Amino acid sequence: MDKWLKENTVFKDTHKGYDFLIKYLKNPGVSYYCGYAKIPKEHKYYNIHYMKIPIKVHRDLSFSQNIDGEWWIGWDYNHGGDRNTELADLIKDSCGVIMQLLEAEDSVDE
């Protein structure tokens, strides 16, 4: 877990009790940012595939995975026009995801 948390991470914080981080991934020919938020075990989206989580964020969620017993969801900025993304915008998007997760905690499934 420590390795994944540290590797390529450029920003890490907690907002309203939710951990989130921003990574800068470097691959041959392309580099881009990704945002991630950790889902608590008691949350209804814990262990749910990202395609079934109705969170709205930059071009939608693109990642969900159990990493050492912690469930993380993520989204990427590897689309046309994303190259000039500012860190402040990435943090704002991350906080927006967390606010949606908080709203989902309070909602009742029908």
Q: What Rg is obtained from the alpha carbons, in whole angstroms?
A: 14 Å
Note the total helix count: 2
SSE-based structural type: alpha+beta
Question: Could you list the spans in which at least 5 consecutive residues all have pLDDT below 50?
Answer: none
What level of helicity do the residues show? 10-25%
Number of strands: 5
Overall, the morphology is globular
**Total number of distinct structural domains:** 1
Beta strand % = 35-45%
Average pLDDT reading: 89
Query: What kind of oligomer do you see?
Result: single chain
Polypeptide structure, described:
With 110 residues, this protein is an alpha+beta fold. The chain has helices at 2-6, 87-106; strands spanning 9-15, 18-27, 30-39, 63-67, 70-76. It has one domain. It is built from two helices and five strands. The protein has a five-stranded antiparallel sheet with strand order 1-2-3-5-4. β2 and β3 (30-39) form a beta hairpin.
